[in-house]
Amino acid sequence: MSAQIIDGNAVASKIIAEVKDAAGKLKEKGRTLLLAAVQVGENPASKVYTANQAKSCEAAGIEYKLHNLPADTSKDQLRQFIGKLNNDNKTTGIILQMPLPPGIDATSIQSEILPAKDVEGVNPANLGKVVFGEIELCPCTAQGVYQLIKSTNVELKGKEVVMVGHSDIVGKPIALLLLNDLATVTVCHIGTRDLASHTRNADIIIVAVGKPNLITADMVKDGVMVFDVGINRIPLKDEKGNPILNDKGKPRKKIVGDVDFDKVKEKASFITPVPGGVGPMTTAMLLNHVVNAGQR
Ligand code: NAD
Description:
By secondary structure, the chain is of the alpha/beta class. Helix content is 38%, strand content 16%. The chain has helices spanning 8-28, 44-60, 75-87, 106-110, 124-129, 140-151, 171-180, 195-199, 261-264, 278-295; strands at residues 4-5, 34-40, 63-69, 93-96, 160-164, 184-188, 204-207, 225-228, 232-235, 253-256, 270-271. The strands form three sheets. A six-stranded parallel beta sheet has the order 1-11-8-7-5-6. Strands 3-2-4 form a three-stranded parallel beta sheet, sandwiched between helices. The longest helix is centred in the first third of the chain and has 21 residues, at 8-28. The protein starts with a strand and ends with a helix.
């Protein structure tokens, strides 16, 4: 059996079309949606993210403003800036770009974002609401994975789910979302003694670790559903196993997830690719949250 490949771009496009429609209706009522992104200092990876955010917002009819703060911004100055955005009537949602400069703890700043404007779902208030099944502003990737699972129409009640990875904004909220649907959820992590003994029993496996090939075909049962959150950049190799170099003589890289996709897909019933699986859903959920915040 070869798995059905879940097209994250297709599911995300549908959500973005709904967002655009909702944004248009709000505009008719005189309410423009504005996503404010806060970036402290320069970061090449963030530049790519913010450019993508701007493009996605434009496609969805949401205004986007990037606030570039100097690299030497202090924690107090950043808190004050967030406070200004919290009080700004035009700003619908706030997104804080990572990483922050050393010495500024992300969690403490995320706690400063007004929960109603916290479109990433990283404020403790919004994270806490997931416990009660309130997910209007739940962490974007977690909700994106949940929506992808739902897109298969699987009945979650009674399913054995293994969540590999227990980060605060991915693994833990995903576990809670599935628990609310009466799945039996096991959370595995760096401290888990025998990962394969858990994954082999799973009807659904979600992996968010950041290690290529962590989940191999011998670790899964036939018919399993696999959702790969991991993002890893690994060197491209030729048939002889030598690295392929770019014009500057540096190794070319490709993006892979945490699952041995080619082999696991031969046993799975459903699987998400990387790229093109969970990634586009994270952005779609972010835009969806801006609409949710605007409607509130
Ligand atoms: P993290 O990096 O904060 O933590 C990693 C997790 O993996 C921890 O729970 C740790 O205990 C676990 N872990 C580490 N080694 C392990 C092992 N050998 N066996 C089992 N568990 C192990 O987690 P994160 O921020 O959720 O990120 C995880 C991955 O997901 C990264 O590759 C990240 O880039 C990716 N990610 C992707 C998206 C997306 O939109 N697709 C969004 C967020 C994160």
